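Help needed: design a sequence for this.
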């Protein structure tokens, strides 16, 4: 159960700042953290720069955990300076290092607070403090601990709370559905409580299904009772919640989790919510869903419970409670596949069928295709049989893209299979074949037969449940019909002398503990059985005298009374019946050879079992009010025992029989007394459920008379034991103990132990054994009565250290004080004790097993198995060696499993032995698994190992001794009969030993395989060694690669690169056995680099390359070149030259290396690398700093490298030489449009930098003119120019060496205005004088001139006939008669042309004198005409992508406007068509014909007189 956390605001021990580091006196300012729940106190108002108070970036998370587990909190803290972290708790101390451990990981900056093996008393509110000199941060976190089992140490506290009527604390929180382990034996026909819980949470449509499942057929009765229960439940729920709705039963989600949900509002937000599975509380979390299996999260009003990592054991009955009231119940069932889906091979356009059979009806399965959920639709049909056991998936009209893996999922169970779609080879190419009507696939088995067999099993189970319910109801009806007044009948005493006496040996004490009431049986002289029936009102009918050989039983009454069972002279059994109102019938004297026992009454008074003179058993019945019937003297050879009472009292069992006389069990804790047992059996007090025990009467039999154990702590008294066995007082849980009566038997009479400290007195022990006083927990010890036996009388042990007095010991042994539990030894002599007891063991079938018990003294003992005594023989050996007792099983069998117990006197120890087998592998499977798995890099490796399904079987996979876990690239699948391991995307490093281990409590078995991942080999091992180098041979050597890639290296490949070249050349290859190579094709003095590859069947390795180049022969370096000379210097460059070396040593020089050294330094810096030689004997050094001085030297480079350096050059300064200013490529004329800015840029060279001056027409420039001087350039800028800015601008540059001038003409102008009217005059034949009025800009712009263009009616084109005319006249030549002429005059300047001035028409009839017609009217001639088509469009059929020309001819005056149309859409503005019209010839051009260019083309010509059109068709071919 949960250990509730008590949250207080006080500070307990260990909480908050301690005395040394945390004085608790600092007061500051409250600050808000970004993390909710963190309280921050800042000590100063303003923090220094770069400093900060502590804060949590990750706070601890509340935890609910089971007792004994590992609990921890984690936190991440920030702050500068680094804060100190301290943990504390509200109600306790955390200083015990064994229970609390604080750790810090500097890598992750995590502070961890650990509690190994957490205990319930550690449940509390914990606090984490982080503090530095600027502030403190604090956060609280709650730990809840779930207790496991019942703690004996809490029993006294609970009993005290019961005494104070504080029952609420005593009650353990339990679900109303009892766990299976604690579930009482269900009576025949009784309805499972889950039935009602499920109905109250189910929809009405599910009622019929639930009733059928639990075998309920009376729906009217069910609905009536359900409505009553619902009303009661709703009233209880209303105290804690409101608006309970949307109850959704548990189901499997697509992500593999299971969940159920409901909506409600808590009246009190602090109310606790509990989850149960099969009646047992299960831990859950609200925040750590990825850490715990169960999670309950809240989304608005909705509460969602989910489980992850589903396993078969997760099936069960789940309930959600708020406080003590159930809100929702749902049943989670696991369905298995009886027939799984099989691989299907289908042809294209054919339907494929997957089908399966499940073990329980399910309305719908989840189908998946290629990892995608499938639904009913055009592509898929999902079919379910009427009994909901057969499920089918039909993939309609299969295509090649449909192939893949298909799966059926029922909860956590699933099966999958491939769909293989084969192309239809007979289908014509390019055409789609018709859909086939056939279906492919199926399971290949008779699914209907399998489903019918499963349905029969389900129907049979359902009918059996119905029959049990029906039988129970019929029995209740019969009992009601025999209703009689309530009474209790005493069982008479009688003897049936004619009955055969049979002596039974009873080895195990039978304790009657039941809440039901049995009827009273009268005297039974018959050979049968007489028993009282059950009544619905609580009373029980009496069974009349049964003189027959059958059974006489009392009937049941509805009013609570029970009929008496008359004298039963039968040889059977006479017993008292049970009454529901508390009264019980008496069992009459049982003179039969059967059994006479008193029944149980619910009101507390049981019937008395009369004297049992038969050979059977006479026992007192059980009463629910605590009283019990007395079992009369049992003179038979059977067993006489007292029945059990529910109120704690027990009937006395008289025991004169040869069997066993024992007190029955009472539910309220008291136990009946076992009467004097004169039989040869055993007389003992029975066990009571409330803790009290019945008294065992005097035992005159040869058996054992002992007091039973009571659950409330009291114990019955063991009566005088006159038998040959043992009479002892039982133990009581409340501390009191029954007295052991005088033991006249040959056994042992001892007082029992009481938990309250008092002890029963051990009566006079006339036995041959020992009479001793028991031990008390309060320290007092009972007196051991006079021990007249030959044994030993000793005082018992007290827990407080005091020792009881040992009574007079008349035996031949020793009277000594008992042992104390709080001290190693008692005051006087040690009592027998067990130093090494039994424990649970697991034995392997067919192997020997040995159990050993070690005592502190040499004493006898007995072994029992499941309550039955054991003796040597039958494969079992019992031996004793001084104080060591051994039980040896020579060859363990399944029947040897059970609870073994060793008893020695009052001491006992027990342990369970379980016999089983170590897991085994099939030899064929083991041989198959042992074969190596070989894959290539990047492929998946799969291992599968079948095994026999077993309980408590743990499957583990290992690689090279390290256990593999599911996740990442490792996938482990565990099925009941096999396990699979999948390693994805294998690497070479994944090669190794793969092992599977099966482990159960009996042992473990392992199977080993090898994983070989093939890959390219690793590079050969270096370095490359030079074995020999001469002028003609270079020999190199290397080592084999460390990793051959899983397959042997076949050969090595060698490549070579000559120094100075980029090309690698393959020289050849050598075998894998040879790791050296001789290169004979080398040139003396040249250097070479080599690289070697290893090759195996998987490919080439990476290369091993020589670290340095290897020269053929010895190194020959050139002599020094001549001393470098400085040719010229500037601030950015110094030019050098030198002479080749006089002695090149016979090796050609390939270039030079230049080095520089700055003045006042010793380091020479190379300006070029050796592998980048300077091929010429001069070089421009540009890596210089202006004003710095340098000296230079040169080395000659040949194949062996750089030779000796030349002598250094003279110092050279990086600066420009003094020079007179000069201008670089200046422009002397610039034209600018008026209004625009003027920019005159002049570049120059001069050293030192000159003084720049600008002049305008030899005068200083105006102030608004800007001059911008930069290094090497000067710029004159006029922001907005005017015509008056036109002038000659002079730049003057002057320095100490000289000066320079340069003039730039700037003309600011605009486009000229057009000339005046144009006049024409013919001076001579064929010539016309053209004159015009000057342009107004002529006087302002001296660069303005005129251009004349001429047009005649013959050519109809304008052409320029005169250009750059500075005069205002022009003479036109070749003017012919009959031709009209027109002239245009333009003014032009640097900005462009003006608008033209048009001349009058010159030519035909322009100068003709009009002739009068003398009254004759002349007819006017007009050339105007409407448009007409001279040449129409033609039909075109071009191929797609080709170009196309389409033309037609159009005439009309005035010139018509021509438009093109495609399918009645104008395309004149479409950029895909190039359209022209030249002198009536209309053309259209398409660069590449497209499909959409096809259609009807139409040309329409329109002028003021009319319209004409023509059309054609364009067809585009493929």
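Sure. Designed sequence:
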């Amino acid at each position: 159960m949960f250990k509730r956390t008590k949250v207080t605001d006080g500070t307990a021990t260990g909480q908050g700042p301690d005395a040394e580091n945390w004085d608790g006196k600092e007061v500051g300012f409250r600050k808000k953290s970004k993390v909710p729940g963190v309280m921050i106190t800042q000590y100063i108002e303003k923090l220094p720069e770069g400093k900060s108070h502590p804060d949590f970036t990750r706070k601890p998370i509340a935890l609910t955990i089971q007792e004994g587990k590992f609990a921890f909190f984690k936190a991440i803290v920030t702050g500068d300076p680094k804060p100190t972290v301290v943990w504390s708790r509200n109600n306790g101390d955390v200083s015990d290092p064994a229970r609390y451990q604080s750790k810090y990981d500097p890598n992750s900056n995590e502070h961890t607070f650990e509690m190994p093996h957490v205990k319930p008393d550690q449940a509390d509110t914990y606090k984490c403090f982080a503090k530095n000199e600027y502030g403190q941060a604090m956060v609280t976190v709650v730990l809840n601990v779930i207790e496991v089992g019942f703690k004996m140490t809490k029993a006294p506290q609970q009993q005290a709370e019961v005494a104070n009527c504080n029952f609420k604390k005593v009650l353990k929180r339990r679900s109303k559905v009892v766990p299976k382990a604690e579930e009482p034996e269900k009576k025949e026909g009784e309805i499972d409580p889950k039935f009602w819980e499920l109905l109250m949470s189910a929809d009405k449509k599910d009622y019929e299904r639930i009733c059928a499942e639990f075998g309920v057929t009376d729906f009217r009765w069910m609905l009536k009772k359900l409505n009553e229960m619902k009303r009661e439940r709703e009233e209880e729920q209303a105290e804690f919640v409101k608006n309970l709705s949307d109850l959704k039963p548990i189901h499997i989600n697509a992500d593999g989790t299971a969940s159920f949900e409901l909506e409600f509002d808590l009246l009190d937000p602090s109310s606790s919510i509990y989850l149960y599975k099969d009646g047992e509380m299960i831990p859950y979390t609200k925040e750590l869903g990825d850490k715990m299996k169960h999670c309950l999260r809240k989304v608005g009003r909705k509460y969602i419970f989910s489980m992850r990592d589903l396993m078969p054991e997760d099936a069960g009955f789940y309930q959600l409670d708020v406080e003590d009231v159930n809100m929702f119940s749902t049943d989670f069932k696991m369905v298995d596949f009886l027939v799984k889906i099989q691989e299907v091979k289908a042809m294209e356009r054919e339907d494929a069928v997957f089908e399966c059979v499940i073990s329980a009806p399910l309305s719908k399965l989840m189908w998946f295709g290629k990892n995608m959920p499938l639904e009913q639709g055009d592509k898929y049909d999902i079919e379910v049989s009427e009994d909901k056991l057969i499920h089918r998936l039909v993939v309609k009209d299969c295509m090649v893209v449909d192939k893949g893996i298909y799966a059926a999922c029922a909860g956590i169970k699933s099966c999958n299979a491939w769909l293989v779609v084969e192309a239809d080879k007979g289908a014509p190419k390019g055409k789609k074949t018709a859909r086939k009507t056939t279906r492919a696939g199926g399971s290949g088995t008779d699914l209907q037969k399998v489903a019918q067999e499963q349905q029969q099993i389900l129907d049979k189970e359902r009918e059996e449940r119905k029959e049990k319910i029906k039988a129970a109801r019929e029995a209740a009806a019969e009992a009601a019909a025999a209703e009689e007044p309530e009474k209790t009948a005493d069982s008479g005493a009688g003897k049936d002398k004619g009955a055969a006496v049979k002596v039974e040996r009873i080895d195990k004490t039978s304790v009657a503990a039941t809440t039901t009431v049995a009827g009273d049986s009268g005297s039974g002289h018959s050979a049968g059985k007489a028993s009282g029936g059950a009544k619905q009102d609580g009373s029980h009918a009496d069974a009349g005298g049964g003189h027959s050989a059958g059974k006489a039983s009392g009937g049941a009454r509805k009013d609570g009374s029970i009929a008496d069972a008359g004298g039963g002279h039968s040889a059977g059994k006479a017993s008292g019946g049970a009454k529901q109102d508390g009264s019980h019938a008496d069992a009459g004297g049982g003179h039969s050879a059967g059994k006479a026992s008193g029944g149980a009454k619910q009101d507390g008074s049981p019937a008395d079992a009369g004297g049992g003179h038969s050979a059977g058993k006479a026992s007192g019945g059980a009463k629910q009010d605590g009283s019990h019937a007395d079992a009369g003297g049992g003179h038979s050879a059977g067993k006489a025992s007292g029945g059990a009472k529910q109120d704690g009292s027990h009937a006395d069992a008289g025991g004169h029989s040869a069997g066993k006389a024992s007190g029955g069990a009472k539910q309220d804790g008291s136990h009946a007394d076992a009467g004097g047992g004169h039989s040869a059996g055993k007389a003992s007090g029975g066990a009571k459920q409330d803790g009290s025990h019945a008294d065992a009467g005097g035992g005159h039999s040869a058996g054992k008379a002992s007091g039973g154990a009571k659950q409330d702590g009291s114990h019955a008294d063991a009566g005088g034991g006159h038998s040959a066995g043992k009479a002892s007082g039982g133990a009581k849980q409340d501390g009191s103990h029954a007295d052991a009566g005088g033991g006249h038997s040959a056994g042992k009479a001892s007082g029992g132990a009481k938990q309250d400290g008092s002890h029963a007195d051990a009566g006079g022990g006339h036995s041959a054994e020992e009479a001793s006083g028991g031990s008390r927990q309060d320290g007092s010890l009972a007196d051991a009565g006079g021990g007249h036996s030959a044994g030993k009388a000793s005082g018992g042990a007290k827990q407080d250290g005091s020792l009881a007095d040992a009574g007079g010991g008349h035996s031949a042994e020793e009277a000594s004080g008992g042992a104390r539990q709080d001290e190693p030894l008692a005051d006087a002599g040690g009592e027998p004790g067990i130093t090494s007891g039994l424990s649970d063991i697991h034995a392997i079938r067919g192997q020997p097993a040995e159990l050993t018990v070690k005592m502190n003294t040499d004493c006898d003992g007995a072994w029992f198995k499941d309550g039955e005594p054991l003796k040597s023989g039958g494969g079992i050996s019992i031996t004793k060696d001084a104080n060591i007792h051994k039980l040896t099983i020579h060859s363990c069998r399944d029947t040897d499993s059970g609870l073994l117990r060793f008893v020695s006197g009052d001491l006992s120890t027990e342990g369970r032995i379980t016999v089983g087998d170590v897991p085994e592998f099939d030899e064929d499977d083991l041989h198959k698994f042992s074969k190596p798995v070989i894959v290539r890099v990047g492929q998946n490796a799969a291992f599968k190992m079948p095994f026999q399904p077993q309980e408590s079987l743990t499957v583990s996979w290992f690689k090279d001794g390290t256990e593999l876990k599911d996740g990442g690239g490792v996938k482990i699948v565990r099925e009941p009969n096999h396990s699979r391991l999948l390693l994805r995307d294998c690497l070479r490093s994944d090669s190794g030993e793969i092992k599977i281990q099966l482990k159960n409590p009996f042992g473990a078995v392992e199977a080993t395989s090898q994983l070989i991942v093939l890959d390219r080999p690793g590079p050969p091992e270096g370095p490359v060694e030079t074995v020999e180098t001469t002028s003609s041979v270079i020999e190199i050597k290397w080592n084999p690669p460390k990793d051959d890639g899983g397959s042997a290296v076949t050969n090595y490949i060698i490549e070579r690169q000559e120094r100075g070249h980029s090309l690698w050349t393959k020289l050849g290859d050598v075998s894998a056995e040879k790791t050296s190579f001789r290169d004979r094709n080398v040139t003396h003095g040249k250097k070479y680099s080599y690289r070697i590859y290893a090759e195996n069947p998987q490919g080439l390795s990476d290369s091993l390359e020589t670290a340095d180049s290897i020269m053929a022969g010895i190194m020959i370096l050139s002599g020094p070149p001549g001393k470098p000379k400085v040719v010229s210097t500037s601030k950015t460059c110094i030019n050098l030259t030198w002479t080749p070396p006089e002695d090149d040593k016979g090796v050609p020089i390939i270039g030079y290396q230049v080095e520089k050294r700055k003045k006042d330094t010793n380091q020479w810096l190379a300006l070029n690398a050796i592998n980048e030689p300077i091929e010429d004997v001069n070089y421009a050094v540009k890596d210089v700093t202006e004003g710095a001085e340098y000296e230079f030297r040169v080395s000659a480079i040949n194949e062996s490298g750089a030779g000796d350096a030349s002598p250094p050059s003279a110092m050279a300064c990086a600066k420009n030489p003094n020079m007179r200013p000069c201008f670089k490529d200046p422009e002397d004329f610039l034209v600018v449009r008026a209004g625009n800015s003027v920019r005159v840029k002049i570049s120059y060279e001069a050293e030192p930098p000159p003084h720049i001056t600008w002049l305008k027409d030899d005068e200083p420039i105006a102030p608004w003119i800007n001059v911008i001087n930069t290094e090497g350039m000067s710029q004159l800028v006029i922001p907005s120019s005017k015509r008056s800015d036109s002038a000659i601008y002079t730049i003057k540059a002057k320095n100490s060496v000289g000066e320079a001038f340069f003039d730039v003409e700037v003309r600011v102008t605009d486009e000229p205005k057009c000339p005046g009217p144009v006049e024409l005059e013919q001076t001579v034949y064929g010539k016309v004088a053209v004159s015009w009025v000057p342009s107004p800009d002529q006087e302002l712009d001296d660069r303005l001139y005129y251009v004349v263009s001429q047009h005649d009616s013959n050519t109809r084109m304008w052409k320029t006939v005169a250009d750059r005319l500075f005069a205002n006249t022009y003479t036109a030549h070749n003017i012919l008669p009959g031709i009209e002429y027109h002239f245009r005059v333009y003014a032009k300047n640097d900005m462009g042309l003006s608008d033209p001035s048009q001349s009058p028409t010159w030519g035909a009839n322009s100068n003709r004198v009009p002739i009068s017609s003398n009254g004759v009217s002349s007819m006017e001639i007009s050339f105007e005409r409407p448009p007409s088509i001279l040449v129409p469009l033609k039909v075109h059929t071009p191929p797609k992508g080709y170009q196309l020309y389409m033309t037609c001819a159009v005439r009309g005056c005035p010139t018509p406007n021509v438009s093109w149309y495609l399918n009645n859409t104008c395309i004149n503005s479409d950029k895909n068509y190039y359209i022209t019209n030249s002198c009536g010839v209309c053309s259209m051009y398409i660069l590449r014909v497209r499909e959409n260019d096809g259609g009807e083309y139409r040309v329409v010509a329109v002028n003021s007189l009319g319209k004409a059109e023509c059309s054609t068709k364009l067809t585009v071919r493929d």
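Residues 1-26, 150-173, 484-829, 1407-1411 have pLDDT under 50 and may be disordered.
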